[in-house]
Amino acid sequence: MSEPKSAPIEQLLEIMVTLRDPQKGCPWDLKQDFSSIIPHTIEEAYEVADAIEQKNWSDVREELGDLLFQIIFYSQLGKEQGLFDFNDVVAGLNEKLTRRHPHVFSDAKFADDEAINANWEAEKAKERDAKGHDESILADIPLALPALSRADKIQKRCSKHGFDWDTIAPVVDKVKEELDEVMDEVIQVSPNQANIEEEMGDLLFSVVNLSRHLKVKPELALQRANKKFEKRFRQVEKSVLEKGMRLESCSLDMLDNEWDKVKRAERKE
Fold this sequence. Notes:
This protein is mostly helical. It is built from 12 helices and no strands.
């Protein structure tokens, strides 16, 4: 009688152990540590997001598997160093989710979404206090987040504690003010690049704030703008090549004309 097959997650954990086995493991996997895997984790997370954006569900499944492997890898490293293992990771997550959702897993009642969010933030504040580190409300916002996303999180956290405008007019005024300050630096007789960079940063931060007030995710909005621009520009490239020309030989007016044609064609679709 054959032995029962391991559950898929157990098999995955066994595969990870084998990959890290000093005698018969994979040389690449054996070289890795917590820090060296970080770029791969970030890349895999973006590949999941890209597959979802493309609505390619078979790719989503595959990329989620690749992202899960990152968690398994970190867990194995933790186990080897006596820090934690995969079961500890899952147990910690289970505890956190049930504690942060008392309206689901206990008899707690909240009047509306705002009350639910307030409880969520209160629980996160307790977690920060329990860690006994930086007491700032911004302490647990990851430094490694993309800058647009991190700016959005910083602003949301400050807003929840009353540091925010109540209406959109001053938000728009701030964007205009920051743009003016950029141009003030640009038109100097001897522009200071460091000052221009600083003012551009302030302008981008204010645009993120405007996005937040308009309930737009700035990272997602920019990703979609990139995608739209790339699609249009590829059409311009194609049109130019079909005319037997190269981009470098075209004037800006000619390229702008092709760009406008692409936009008009989109509106007819």
